[in-house]
TrEMBL record:
Top-rank taxon, per record: Eukaryota
InterPro entries: AKR (IPR020471), Aldo/ket_reductase_CS (IPR018170), NAD(P)_OxRdtase_dom_sf (IPR036812), NADP_OxRdtase_dom (IPR023210)
Protein name (Swiss-Prot/TrEMBL): NADP-dependent oxidoreductase domain-containing protein
Signal peptide annotation: none
Organism of provenance: Triticum turgidum subsp. durum (Durum wheat)
Binding-site residues, substrate: 70
Length: 275
């Protein structure tokens, strides 16, 4: 296993007053998600700042460094039970929700604001309304879902990309793990004396993206930090660039129940798959 002596680099965020973001994040969420707070409901200006206040008290924090819109999806009022009923989805109010996020930023509750699970077309709508620039877009991204189009768009617009499921996620659909089982990554890892996880995380870092990796194992946490004192060769990058692409997280299958109909919102507007 590689050493963890190299310091963690930081990334500057484009958001007034934001602190730099570490080049690797430690995720804590496990799946399926159990939540008690508001989810996907801040469709009005008052609501997002209001929904943030109880969370802030629970966290015992005066402010957070970064506050994200989780999905470009809104639901009818009421408690959220997963999987969500399709008929509960309503059109997402890009301008109204972003105004509320901007208010959180203006009040100093969030030093930077951003989004998650936004495609380029979602970002187009957001940027048309934004007065505070979104600092970050957190999306599924790893060597088997490389998000080339989105990365190019975000680089051009000055939006930093963060990668969730950088190691392929927690096998929630029971299909195994396309990243940790990758023969291409295994071959590179063997040649470099690294683990497959380290090769995947290093590749993400070399793309200018911040991986958010979850582990509850002390040894694997250390392993995942050991990516800053070595690099991948051009030939490694070429091989990784040729890995067949496969997305795991989809709004339709991860969030919504299989039965029922989308009566008030269009699934195409909420889906997050983009080649
Ligand atoms: N914005 C969103 O919609 C969204 C969606 C999904 C996830 N996330 C965030 O992103 C974080 C990470 O994503 P994720 O949990 O989906 O996937 P991930 O970090 O790719 O994978 C986590 C799985 O890999 C294992 N693992 C971690 N380090 C390893 C290593 N070095 N070698 C082998 N296995 C290792 C973990 O198990 P052990 O714990 O046993 O090590 C865990 O089961 C989450 O915790 C969450 O905070 C956000």
């Amino acid at each position: 296993m590689a050493s963890t002596t190299a310091a963690v680099p930081e990334v500057a965020l484009r958001s007034g007053g934001a602190r730099p973001m570490p080049a690797i994040g430690m995720g804590t969420a496990t799946f399926p998600v159990v939540r008690s707070g508001p989810w996907a409901r801040p469709s009005r200006r008052r609501c997002a700042a209001g929904s943030w206040r109880p969370g802030r008290r629970n966290l015992q924090m005066e402010y957070v460094d970064l506050y994200l819109i989780h999905w470009p999806i809104s639901l009818k009022p009421g408690p959220t039970v997963f999987p969500v009923k399709r008929e509960d989805a309503v059109p997402f109010d890009f301008e109204g929700v972003w105004r509320a996020m901007e208010e959180c930023h203006r009040l100093g509750l969030a030093k930077a604001i951003g989004v998650s699970n936004f495609t380029t077309s979602h970002l187009d709508k957001l940027l048309a309304a934004a007065t505070v620039h979104p600092a970050v877009n957190q999306v599924e991204l790893n060597p088997v879902w490389q998000q080339r189009k989105l990365r190019g768009y975000c680089a051009e617009k000055g939006i930093h990309v963060a990668a969730y499921s950088p190691l392929g996620g927690q096998n929630w659909n029971g299909d195994g793990n396309a990243v940790l089982d990758s023969e291409v990554l295994a071959e590179i890892a063997k040649a470099r004396g690294k683990t497959i996880a380290q090769v995947a995380l290093r590749w993400i870092y070399e793309q200018g993206v911040t991986p958010i990796v979850k582990s509850f194992s002390k040894e694997r946490l250390k392993e995942n930090l050991g990516i800053f004192d070595w690099w991948l060769a051009d030939d490694d990058l070429r091989k990784i660039g040729q890995i067949p692409q496969k997305k795991i997280v989809r709004a339709e299958t991860v969030l919504f129940s299989a039965e029922g109909e989308f009566t008030s919102a269009d699934l195409a507007d909420m889906e997050i798959v983009e080649e």
